[in-house]
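Weekly structure sync, notes
Attendees: PL (lead), two postdocs, one rotation student
Agenda item 3: pending single-chain targets
PL asked that the sequence for the first pending target be pasted directly into the notes so everyone works from the same version. It is reproduced below exactly as submitted, 860 residues in total.
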Amino acid sequence: MTIGAGTRLGPYEVIAPIGAGGMGEVWRARDSRLNRDVAIKVLPGDVSADAGRLKRFEKEARSASALNHPNIVTIYDIGQSDSVSWIAMELVEGKALRELLSAGLLPIKKLLQIGTQVAEALSRAHEAGIVHRDVKPENVMVTKAGLAKILDFGLAKLTEPEPERGQESVSPTVSAGTEPGVVMGTVSYMSPEQALGKPVDFRSDQFSFGSMLYEMATGRRAFARRSAPETLTAIIREEPEPVASLSPQTPAPLRWIVERCLAKDLEDRYASTKDLARELATLRDHLTEASGPSSVAPAPRRVRVAGLLALAVVLAGFVGVFLLARRVGGRPPPSFRQLTFRSGEVNHARFAPDGQTIVYSATWGADPLSISSTRSGSVESRTLGTPGADLLSISAAGEMLVLRDGTLARVSLTGGGERELLEGVLDAAWAPNGTDIAVVRQRGAIGSRAQPGTSGARLEFPVGKVLYETSGGMEAPRVSARGDQVAFVDHPLRGDSRGSLAIVDLRGKKRRLSGEFNSIEAAAWSPRGDEIWFSGMPANASMAIYAVSPSGRQRVVARGPGGLGLQDISSDGRVLLTHGKDRILLMTLAPGQATERDLSWLDASILGDLSDDGRTLLFTEEGEGAGSLTYSTWLRRTDGSPAVRLGDGLGCGLSPDGKWALVVRLQPQPAQLVLIPTGPGEAKSLTHDAIDHRIAAWFPDGRHVLFAGSEPGKGTHLYVQDLDGGAPRAITPDSDKRRALWIRRPVSPDGHLVVWFDGERFLLCPVEGGSPRPVMEVANGEKVVRWNSDGHALYVQDSQHTSVKIFRLDVSTGQRQLWKEIPAPAPRWGSGLLLTPDGKSYVHGYGTSSSALYLVEGLK
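Predicted structure, written out during the meeting:
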């Protein structure tokens, strides 16, 4: 069948040719049914003649036709007329991106407008499970109004030969691997995995898109060589010339995005194309800030107060005993101005861009967490209307980063709605340029969403570029003034406040700067950028303010009675800090008692184990009273008798006969298991291997222990260790990288099953091998406490604001019933629950916090 003007293809009348290429001829046609013009692509004859390829194409095209996005050309119809196969699609009036590039470099603003639209279209397709496989300038149309449209979704498989069974072809739209000219046009945008014939996913499109962005920014193709084979070799093995050397005017954030997309290792590209699109959109919306000096927005509206009071509040006793580590002769002592007075806890506080407005998040009384602002000379605060949000950072333009239930959002100080950015976030901060964000995320977070149950954290700067990962925890990312380094607090164990201050450069080279502290939190660069200040609590001392230089020179800035928490440093050297105290309390309902008894001992008592008769408690002190960096394990009778210190380490479990405490010794690394006698005798080392032992429990027979640990290069697994020695035996598969949430009594009474958490649900894992089976879906932060005495049920804890509810869950039927409700004071934060097998006696822990915010001048 010959195609020409007047030819009818189904309901479409061909009007005139538009163009031709490796994918076939394109014609303008008229849809007689809807009275509209469309584009008709007539497929090559070899495709029409190959039933297998045609069938696969139709399947792809139908999937692509379901995509509904303003930046994706809509597919209307596919069909055959005589021997001609065709596809009808939206007609785009405009120019191909290739034509625009041929006219010269695009302005950065236009580049970002087009690039963002293309990235958003790819993100939509990738979310639907569709990969383009042939992203290039020829497949992007731009209308006169600047609207970008991607062509040929679903058509990349047209030129592929039929793959072997069980193997998916990844060829782009080329007809021969060595043809010059048009072949070169596609080969230049292939990903390394395409060039190697490996399977592809959405990250292959990211690489092709990065090649296109590179050309848009520099006017040169990233990998073009004299022939297709040479080009393929360059894609696989070589790095393109840096964008900065070819186009110095390109903003640094755009260069970073291109570099991320062009990473050879697909794991180093974006975990989600949605993140890529979001970064481009952010850069597009803040182009002025990214291209030049940071602009500072006008000062937020002044706080309305009853009157401006000139306060010079000096706390009697507090300032009197406040000591400076370095006193320079003749220098006046620092001054303290209290800013908050209500009973509760200040979480975070930051200076606003004007330097006089102070914004903070706090929990007062029984009220939920909220953000307020005040002025340095005022005693009143104004609420900003962000219930449940925690303040993390404020940019030079007056935009806050706030965190609510793991979701990071940005909101203006001057008002307006929140814009959600990322999920799975632990902490974040603006870079000094006011555009980029350093973020600490749950290590299993993929794109904007968090994958539950994965251990550890990762530091990204800018968002999407991973600089450092750890199986432990991180907080307080702080970007240097030049944007070339990120300081952060590094915790070896997740959920543990012990750690040190570290720094990482943009190549991912990480160094530890400070010594190790019992507890460390918060950080801020000094105004001159020559030090990072932070809050740290060494052994046998209160939380104090320290400073360390990038070379590792450490000094004490200030210390005093009670804990000092660094919050922020202004450009003129004024400091925001909190002064207060946290305490963890232990309450028990002992056997035969009708009312609870307070078993709290020092300042931070962490539950370990409760004997089956409910009369002996094992616990750990981890606060100032612990006395060492390795914590201390204690034993106490629930009748209120004085506690006895057993030794260093994290107390995990009491042996069935009550004679031994199973303890994790944190130092030296990796942590090991130790048995400490509860009476006369000497401690015994149970393990000495390369596994980092996290926490452990006894088997009912007293001859084995279960522990959670990680071997080098592997995730966290559960192991069984014999007391007689020998190598431990893993009972969760090597391929399992998920975090096993610890349950203090996880082993069933018969020793055959272990209950554990895979991040989404609780499962029963056979000790002697076999597939785990789910026993309970997680809802509202529920936790399994332990097995009951006959092994037929689990006790499940559900902590509410005013009580702790305990349910009895039948493991056979999945049915649950309320067993007990324990009143708990509010506000409080839970610190665990121990229960006897009969469910009648218990010990539960909860924390209390109290702090006030101060503005300090004169600290050096």
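Discussion points:
- The chain has 13 helices and 57 strands.
- The chain has three domains: 103-131+164-291, 318-580, 599-847.
Action: rotation student to compare against the earlier draft before next sync.
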